[in-house]
């Protein structure tokens, strides 16, 4: 097992220099493909404002595929059910403990499913709210109050949760905000420019943090 993890770590180290982002495709019936313009718009913003060099045409990768090791950052969203098989659980865990990073954006309705499935990946870990002084809120763009609110659903505050493995943040989960909705083309949600800008800046911070850590 240790030898396998070591080989996976080497594989990840080789490919992480590509600094690309992939959309995570999962089973269970949830719409993993939601917000199709979100990642391309965020990539364009990040390339321009934090000088990344990310491909403008993001790939989709399945949870159980070795292809996830080609990407330092995976993005996941949707409204409905998520279901990881045992093989997918093992693959995602190996990816995350080998240096990978997963950003989950709750597009409303994902919460109970993603909490259940991430418990399979890390049975002993609990989601913790990320404090406002954490580096993810203090990259190129500063968010002294933490997660910005983009969309309103249940009149609850926007929150950013994380899973920490051996002290390292490996999963970042934005909740009650629909952060990725704010990345989409303006015509889709008619968000004001100021709201879209907040969402894009926070998204750029997530990318910057993931690439550095």
TrEMBL record:
What domain of life does the UniProt record list for this protein's source? Bacteria
> What start and end residues bound the annotated signal peptide?
1-18
Task: Report domain DUF4159 positions.
Answer: 21-211
Q: Does the record's keyword annotation contain Signal?
A: yes
InterPro entries the UniProt entry points to: Class_I_gatase-like, DUF4159
Q: Which UniProt keywords apply?
A: Signal
- Specify the protein name: DUF4159 domain-containing protein
Organism (species): Polaribacter aquimarinus
